[in-house]
Amino acid sequence: MLKNLAPVICLIPLIATAADDAETPGGWKGEGELGFTSTSGNTDSETLIANLGVSKEIELWKHSAVLKTIQAETGDVESADSLQLKARSDYKISEKSYLFGQLRYEDDEFSGYDYQASLAFGIGSRVIDNEQHLLDLYAGLGTRRLKDTETGDTEGDAIITAGLLYEYKISETAIFNQRFDIEEGDENTRTESETSLKLKIAGNLAAKIAYLVKRNSEVPAGTEKADKLTTISLVYGF
Q1: Which of 216, 206, 211 shows the shortest CA–CA distance to 228?
Q2: Bridge partners of 147?
Q3: What is the C-alpha separation between 74 and 46, in angstroms, rounded?
Q4: Backbone Cα Rg of the chain
Q5: Most exposed of 89, 133, 155, 205 (fewest Cβ within 10 Å)?
Q6: Separation between Cα atoms, residue 194 and residue 189, nearest integer Å
Q7: What is the pLDDT of residues 38-83, one digit of tens each?
Q8: Residues sharing a CB contact under 8 Å with residue 193, sequence separation 6 or more, in sequence order
Q9: Domains in the chain and their CATH numbers?
Q10: pLDDT digit string (tens) for 98-122?
Q11: Is residue 2 within 8 Å of 28, Cβ to Cβ?
């Protein structure tokens, strides 16, 4: 896997340099990420990750979307895939507070579910926002559908969702980030935590080291509740 992707990784700095002076169409901004993980838990293997996140602010509105993909291989055999799509809209109601609506879909072969899909609405607050620190908290209510891989049964439940985003600007070239979110319902409690450090290389290109933990409280027999991914990747912001 590493040999096949080496040419692509080598091209990223060239693409980043060529795009430095380009304007983002429609006022959208975001970042793309490509890297490898060392996975332990339900699958021990080499893993490729590719992520893309975009956002746009229009007066009191902020719209964002994130696509995350993981492909794991054991030897030359594809062993597990994960795809997660999250779309969200925030509406500012005060200097620090906002209302939000969020749609999340996850097809994760690591988790023991064919898919989990949820829709939630709630309120959030930018508790801290200065030159060095940022802390964002949110909570809400929603509904969810889950399909069990083992039985093929599809269930639905009401959920409580909550999360936080903390960012610490260590220096002009280093940023520490902690993200955590939870969906709790009768059928399953799902949590996801990512701790990362991003180091600027040149221009819009950065290196990122991250530790991701995804946990489901209800899983089929023989399936571990938590999966852990250690990631080293290249990130390009635009």
Answers
A1: 211
A2: 115, 154
A3: 7
A4: 19
A5: 133
A6: 17
A7: 656 665 667 889 999 999 999 999 999 999 998 877 755 556 688 9
A8: 178, 179, 180, 212, 213
A9: 2-237 (2.40.160.40)
A10: 999 999 999 987 677 889 999 999 9
A11: no
For residue range 127-180, list pLDDT tens digits in order: 999 999 999 999 999 999 998 877 788 989 999 999 999 999 999 999 999 999
Residue type present at position 33: E
Q: Tokens 């960012």 label which residue?
A: 167
Amino acid found at 56: K
Q: By three-state DSSP, how is residue 161 classified?
A: strand
- Strands of the chain, DSSP E: 29-40, 45-58, 61-74, 77-92, 97-108, 113-129, 133-148, 154-169, 174-185, 189-202, 205-216, 226-237
CA dihedral 49, 161, 106, 116 (to 10 degrees): 150
> Which helix (H) or strand (E) element contains residue 19?
helix 2-19
Nearest to 156 by CA among 190, 207, 116: 116
Do the Cβ atoms of 89 and 100 come closer than 8 Å?
yes
The Cβ of residue 172 has, within 10 Å, a number of other Cβ atoms equal to: 7
If you count them, how many residues does the chain have? 238
